Amino acid sequence: MKAYLAGCVDCDGYFTIKRSTYHMRVRNDASNPVFSEKVGLKQVIPVVVDLLQEYFGGYRRIEKPSAKNGKPLHAWSVTDKQAVACVQCLLPYLKVKLAQANVLIELRRSKDRTKGHSHNPIPPDEIRLRELLFLQVKSLNDIRPTKPVLI
Question: pTM for the complete prediction?
Fold first, then answer.
């Protein structure tokens, strides 16, 4: 089952990092962005979405189609510690999105290193690392062709 789910997420899913500045901009009660690990998948048929939710928990929803004649999409996602638990379970079977999965694990390590900092600011080197991990996973997920560099 794990190998099957890993193949589905490798094909139609995503591993990403959400970067939120809401607490900085709106509430003014934070000095740094919040970074969250996120794993998800969207498909027209609900079978795999249902299996992922049964296996890993998380959130299930139906999204409107983006194409004019498209079908609704069954979507599933899981965040933070649940996302990392999902990644660790699927990791041995991932082929296509292995690098993105490893970036999420590295973000969790950074967050675990700063546990208990609720009254102390998170060290600047950890914030820089999280920003770099955010940019790294964003780059790995960018499917646009790169332009050759002319020398």
Answer: 0.89
